[in-house]
Amino acid sequence: MAQKFGGKFSPDGTSQPDAAAPRPQSKAKVNPVGLRANLMVLPAGILLILSVLSGASTMILGLIGAGLWALGAFLLREGLRAEAAYNDRRVAKRPALPRKILASVLTGGGSAFAAFSDDASLMAAGAYAVATVGLHLAAFGVDPLQDKGTEGIDRFQQNRVARVVDEAEEHLTAMKDAVLRARDRRVEARVDQFQEIVRDLCRTVEDDPRDLTSARKYLTVYLVGARDATIKFADIYHRSQDAQARSDYMTLLDDLEQNFSARTRKMLLEDRGDLTVEIDVLRERLQREGVQLDRT
Predict the structure, then answer these.
(1) Residue 257: which residues within 8 A CB-CB, separation 6 or more?
(2) If you placed Cys at 168, which of 158, 179, 219, 273 could pair as Cys (CB 3.0 to 4.6 Å)?
(3) Global pTM?
(4) Strand, helix or coil for residue 148
(5) How open is the CA angle 290-292-296, to the nearest 5 degrees?
(6) What's the gap between Cα 67 and its chain centre?
(7) Sign of CA dihedral 150, 153, 159, 163
(8) Could you give the C-alpha distances from 164 to 134, 201, 216, 219, in angstroms and in order?
(9) Residue 54 CB: number of other CB atoms within 10 A?
(10) What's the rounded Cα separation, in Å, for the pair 240 and 199?
(11) Hey, which residues does 148 pair with through a beta bridge?
(12) CA dihedral 137, 140, 145, 150 (to 10 degrees)
């Protein structure tokens, strides 16, 4: 179904503040699963078709190979998404399951069964498998194998932060999925902008887990309310195109964004204040030891 595009210079355009173009976002989100990863499903489909049209033994070996290739392609997509989430965070734990490495192994196993289905020898099938694993790793790389930014941070506190941030990301994903039903590009862009503000707060908490206590209400209660409001708005606007509902929802996002931004700024100021106190205490200790410091 086509989606109508509206704007200031459209026939039904308006110059009201609500219809103004949203402010630019801090950064664009790129889908980590690219064309190369999507094309990995193609060999599995071709092998499946060729196997069904062959004899019994060839069909069984071919179906096993196609299944391994398909599973490898699925794990590769999930591994790329997990790697992108790891790279987006300043503090992150390595993925519990090395999906990209497992995808390489499964793809190599699928190549071995595909070779067996063509009456290849054991040595030839092994060579195909090793070559496939090597090429797969060269093309897509390996998973992150160590934690990032966790030095000197209490592991228990870090696990608490990780759970809250993961829950917040689930709420943001639900908001994004729900607002698509409204079929309004400006509202979608506004939700994306709000999500960036929330992620700034998440990154601030990840940098200093001590901020979790003051930010937990924002990342749980307030964000759940924003998600529920988004779902209700999308249902209403999809059915009736109610302009008042759209205006109320945009106002809600403005209020939420201001509150989340204020919370982030306050935590940064508190962290700066703590640093100033630590510096002053250190200066006093050095002066008591007879070390003269240049105040300039």
Answers:
(1) 193, 194, 197
(2) 219
(3) 0.60
(4) strand
(5) 160
(6) 27
(7) negative
(8) 38, 12, 7, 7
(9) 16
(10) 32
(11) 92
(12) 160
Q: Please classify residue 199 by burial: count the beta carbons closer than 10 Å to its beta carbon, then call 0-12 exposed, 13-18 middle and 19+ buried.
A: buried
Count CB atoms within 10 A of the CB of residue 191.
23
Q: Give the DSSP letter of residue 118.
A: T
Residue pLDDT, tens place only, 191-243: 999 999 998 888 888 777 777 777 888 888 888 999 999 999 999 988 888 88
Going by C-alpha positions, the residue among 189, 15, 159 that lies closest to residue 91 is 159
36 CB-near residues (< 8 Å, 6+ apart): 139, 140
Q: Specify the length of the chain in residues.
A: 296
**Residue 270: what residue type?**
E
SS3 7: coil
Q: How far apart are CA 88 and CA 196, in angstroms?
A: 12
Question: What does 59-76 look like in DSSP terms, one character per residue?
Answer: HHHHHHHHHHHHHHHHHH
Pairwise CA distance, residues 188 & 194, whole Å? 10
Residue scoring higher pLDDT (16 or 193): 193
Q: Phi/psi of residue 167, each to 5°?
A: -65, -40
Rounded Cα distance, 3 and 234, in Å: 15
